[in-house]
């Protein structure tokens, strides 16, 4: 598994085709999120031109901190995110470094689907992501102001899935279906 530390934007009211300048009217608050990815599975299905969203969708793959009301965050585009694995800092970045800002994410997402109250949009991760996590690792993560005020934290342990996971792909050859195991 690999980790990506991200800011979560909690939607406060339904919205479709939200304009950039109206983004703040649709935000209830924020949360710290850890976007976990089964990278080996993701690479396998991407190489076969298959959808890879399931590589991020296993149970427990996106732990989220407690909710932070938007009034408690002065500038969501200037927050420090960090993650430690077994006490070693693996990633530290600022939301100001992200490719897309929150107004653009809300505009874009709401142009595709109606945002609903309670939805969570993860912003993507600052530089330095893709750290490996294995069974037994202690994971600690935090969200802070640039001055060091802690806004959210999360602590947990990585664990293997009982029974593991086997990827089975349906392959079609000359109009006949066959199942192959990868």
TrEMBL record:
Metal-binding recorded as keyword: yes
A single cellular component GO annotation: mitochondrion
The UniProt record lists the keyword Metal-binding: yes
A molecular function GO annotation: metal ion binding
Residue ranges occupied by any Fumarylacetoacetase-like C-terminal domain in the UniProt entry: 1-144
Gene3D superfamilies (UniProt xref): Fumarylacetoacetase-like, C-terminal domain
Keywords: Hydrolase, Metal-binding
Family named by the database record: Belongs to the FAH family.
Protein name: Fumarylacetoacetate hydrolase
Organism the protein comes from: Lentinula edodes (Shiitake mushroom)
Lineage: Eukaryota, Fungi, Dikarya, Basidiomycota, Agaricomycotina
